[in-house]
Amino acid sequence: MSFPELRRLLFYLVFASLAGLSCASPFPDGKGELILATTTSTRDSGLLDVLLPEFEKETGYFVKPIAVGSGQAMAMGTRGEADVLLVHSPDAERNFMADGHGSSRQVVMYNDFVLLGPSSDPAAIKDSSAVADAFARIAATESLFISRGDNSGTHARELSIWSAAGIDPAGSHWYQETGQGMGATLNIANEKDGYTLVDRGTFLAREATLRLGIVFEGDDSLRNVYHVIEVDPAPHPAVNSAAAAAFSEFLVSPRAQELIGEFGIDKYGEPLFFPISE
Prior knowledge:
The chain is an alpha/beta fold. It has helices spanning 3-19, 40-44, 47-59, 70-78, 90-98, 131-141, 153-164, 182-192, 200-206, 241-251, 254-262, 265-268, and strands spanning 32-39, 61-68, 84-87, 102-117, 145-147, 175-177, 196-199, 213-216, 223-231, 274-275. Helix 6 crosses helix 7 (153-164).
């Protein structure tokens, strides 16, 4: 086993142990393994539970998903610790591709971000004209805002909104960073009755457990697009480029796009994601 392969295996075993995943067979029988670095939203919404078994059945590959923020997923790709990425941070993705870390990038689906808050709405956000205005009201009233603070796609979008509002919230007593994924951040915001930005899919999947509700939605700047990126194998010989290509093509196939478009309708009355492959 080469050093890159050993590093990938050790990384997965450590992560799997921390995440409570099975480590019984790191190299199972079948066509091969695929390490997928993806966002917590695809895991927390339940979408991976629908897509991955279908992909494995169709192709014979075994998928090892690692759910982190988009920034962390791309960092894994940069180090050759993942074969393929499913992420939603467009600016960082373009930089990733420009720096030569990805060999292919395809659009897969979208949903949108929504701003959640307590029913009392202390920042009077519900009649805001735009999401930047809503954020400005949070800052003006020093209402509690819970940020992921984890370099994820959601965190990047949140920071872009603060920038559009002309506000730097870092260090403010009312601005708290969790450094955690979307599910954990939602729980903290819910416990503290704070505002937070979340993708709609994760919100719908967790809505029954939350006191928080949507206080602002519908701004064009809240559109949330996901891309699949194949990690370039040239600098990382251990990358399974065949498996990555198979997964990328699966996500944009009619079957996967149908599964994405149907996901959530039976339980929530609306899809959690919308397919948009080109």
